[in-house]
Here is the input.
Amino acid sequence: MDAEARGPRSNATLALVLGFALLAFIGFVALGMWQLQRLGWKDALIDRVDRQLRAAPVPAPSSNATLTREADEYRRVSAQGRFDYGREVTVRAATALGTGYWVLTPLQRADGSWLLVNRGFVPPEQRAQIPRSDESASVTGLLRLSEPGGSVLQANVPAEGRWYSRDVASIAQAQGLAGPVAPFFIDLQATPATAAAWPRPGLTVVQFKNDHLVYALTWFALAAIMAGAMTYLVIDERRLRRLTGAR
Here is the structure.
């Protein structure tokens, strides 16, 4: 049926269609603006992390420090103390080297407080024979905040020693660390000496997906399409009414 045979829509129908189209247009524009805000936030995050990765290490915060993911994650920090290899745990990991385990070893600082150090990755065949160095240690790496609870599909089982995330508080409790425990862990940085050693540090993935501009343009394109559709509808309706003499 062509447009002339169909005839113009009623005012109520036209108002309803245009109303829904206008709401969709406003929604698409709002989503586009939100994605632009997310783009600004993500760009600032990437810039901050890049600066922190290039900065000289600073002393690791105290065990009672208040940290935020936005300001503190991926800061380069250093600490000194003594490793307690008897309370070491392994946490399931998937890395560029394959699946295996992170090796988390408690480090007790001079003030008696503890912090967990991720000494690096080991493949499954190395799990039973993880090399250990001197107990006294000076470590440098990236500050990482605790990962409570476990992974999306697998929860930590402390009673069975099965760990799927680096949950600082749960690991400290399960391993009986007496005294203050820092609410973060340190991902040990790689050095020339660790290039072929186990555990293998330096595998921290510091990448941020940043597709917000693409999403914003997509929403704005949909808004433009909706605006075009509304314009066409109004023009076509006026043409039909002129042809039929309707009002």
Observations:
- The first strand starts at residue 58 and ends at 59.
- Residues 3-46+210-244 form one domain.
- The two ends are 21 Å apart (CA to CA).
- Strands lie at 58-59, 76-83, 89-95, 98-108, 114-122, 136-145, 181-188.
